[in-house]
Amino acid sequence: MLNPLVVGTDEDTHQVTAIISHLIRTGREQGYEEWLHGIATAAHQFQGHLGVNVIRPCNPAHPEYVAILRFDHYNNLKTWLESSVRQEWLERLQPLIEKPETIQTLTGLETWFTLPNKPMKAPPPRYKMAIVTWLGVFFTISILNRLLVPLLAELPVLLRTLLVTGLTVALLTYVIMPHLTQLFRKWLYPI
C-alpha cells in the first residue's frame, strides 16, 4: 500500500518532505489542476501538514507535475499517505495520469546516503549519518586546507571562506559522500 521509496521510519524524525510526481495525460491538465487543488485542501486537514508547493511542467510535450508536500513528522505524513481520504483522491487521479505516481520522501541528510540503483527504504540511524558526514567534512577540508587555501591566501578572509565552503559542499554532495556511502554501505544499511 505504501510506496517502498518512502523513508523515515525513525520515531525521532522531524519535518519530512514528500516529493510526488505525476505525468499527466495530454489534454487533462485542467482536470489535474482541479484534482490537485482538491487533494491539497484535503491534505491540509491532516495533523502536521506544513504546506505543499507545486512545480508545474515547463514543457507541454512532457507534462510532469511535481508536488512537494511537507509534514512536521514522518508518522503524520504516513497517516496521510495511507489514509482512506488520500486513496479516494488517488482513484479520481487515475484517468488523468499516464503512469502511477512516484513518491520520494526525505527528512534531511539521508539524501547524501543513497546508494546508486537501490531504492531507499529507511535512512541510516542519525549517529551513523553524523559519523560518515564528519569523516567526509574532515577529509574534504583537510585536503582543501592543504591544497587550495595557500593559493587563495591573497584574498580577503570572507571571500576565501566563501570559496572553500562552497567547494566543500559541492565536493561532499557530488564526489565524497557518494563514495563514502558506498564504502560504508554494509555498516549504514545492514541486512
Structural topology:
Layout: E1 14-23, H1 29-44, E2 49-55, E3 64-73, H2 74-81, H3 84-93, E4 102-106, H4 126-147, H5 157-183, H6 185-188
Antiparallel strand pairs: 1-3, 1-4, 2-3
Description of the molecule:
The protein has 191 residues and is of the alpha+beta class. The protein has two domains: 14-107, Alpha-Beta Plaits (2-Layer Sandwich), CATH 3.30.70.100; 126-188, no CATH class. Helix content is 46%, strand content 17%. It has six helices and four strands, in the order E-H-E-E-H-H-E-H-H-H. The protein has a four-stranded antiparallel beta sheet with strand order 2-3-1-4. The longest helix has 27 residues, at 157-183. The two termini are 23 Å apart. 18% of the residues are buried.
Defining traits:
4-stranded antiparallel β-sheet; 2 domains; 191 residues; alpha+beta; 6 helices; Alpha-Beta Plaits; 46% helix
The CATH class of the largest domain is Alpha Beta
If you average the pLDDT, what whole number results? Answer: 82
Radius of gyration of CA atoms, rounded to a whole number: 21 Å
Helix/strand-derived category reads alpha+beta
Number of separate helices: 6
Order of SSEs: EHEEHHEHHH
Order the strands across the largest sheet as they lie in space.
2-3-1-4
- State the CATH architecture of the largest domain: 2-Layer Sandwich
CATH topology of the largest domain: Alpha-Beta Plaits
Overall morphology: elongated
Task: State the end-to-end CA separation.
Answer: 23 Å
Strand content: 15-25%
Kindly report the oligomeric state of this protein: single chain
Count the strands? 4
